[in-house]
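Data availability excerpt. The first of two example chains:
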Amino acid sequence: MARATVLFIILLLVGTSTTFADAEERPLWEIGFGGGVIQIPDYRGSSESGVYPYPFVMPIYRGRSFQADEEGIKGVLGESNRLRLDVSFYGNVPVNGDNDARAGMETLDPLLEIGPMLRYKAWTASRHRQSLILDAPLRVALSLGDGVDVVGYALTPRASYRRQIDLCDRPWKWSISGELLWGSRDLHRYYYQVDPVDATAWRPAYDAGAGFGGSRLRTSLYRRDRNRLISLYAVYDHLGGAVFEDSPLVERQGGLTLGFVVIWFPFQSNDVVKVNQWEWTTE
């Protein structure tokens, strides 16, 4: 899978949203075109990163049970005012052979994580359309190379605070979230294992285990009107306390991802559906 395709998956899930009213009729489907720039570490704990400009295509579909929209790809399994059960997705970029820490080791295919996510809207306030949402996603990690293989499992509970802010007399959506990461042994081995055959004088053999995988802080600022979406985002990964933090492939405990994307929507269906942005709706 091309790096640009994987970045499409990640950016779709980083957290963009809308500024529509709580319930409003919107097109059943839209197709958007745009582009952006992302700076991202080769993997969590790597001292090397890249800056990648990329084109961007965003198909949007607002179905009853499946949705691909500005909040990401979601399969809505059930919903109430406070609780929601989704199918969640997340992606990780491939690691090529030009990474110095992994010199001589096999390249790593991109990973796609997929699984159920239970969501609880713990607090809301009508002023500034504020909300605090607790998420508990449990996902299986799949490597996407010549075939599709199960790599391991991840549990990443998070708390997200969202609110509307006004910038230049226009409403924007701002969110900040913190999450804790746990992973299976096989998932951690995928990135941080050093087999004896790959050991060198400066890269000793290492056996990664299951358990705590660090923490993540992310924030995003975005605006959507009828024909355009603008999103800016940042993600900070911290590996302090991770069960694999003493792996020779972990070169630093912190890593920062930065990016932005601008998308225009020239194609929209004539059919409309009523949209209720659950994440932003106050009771």
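And the second chain:
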Amino acid sequence: MANRLVQTTSPYLLQHADNPVDWWPWSPEAFEEARKRDVPVLLSVGYASCHWCQ
């Protein structure tokens, strides 16, 4: 499984580039794949916190 986030420049998305999840960045291709597979799109709103905030 490829994690497509390794190709992004977003610092938030890069935090998840090593996750064993088939993440897709926001793109027309992501929505087309969801349509083809007839699956919902689960959207991350970009929440992240540092260890000082916990």
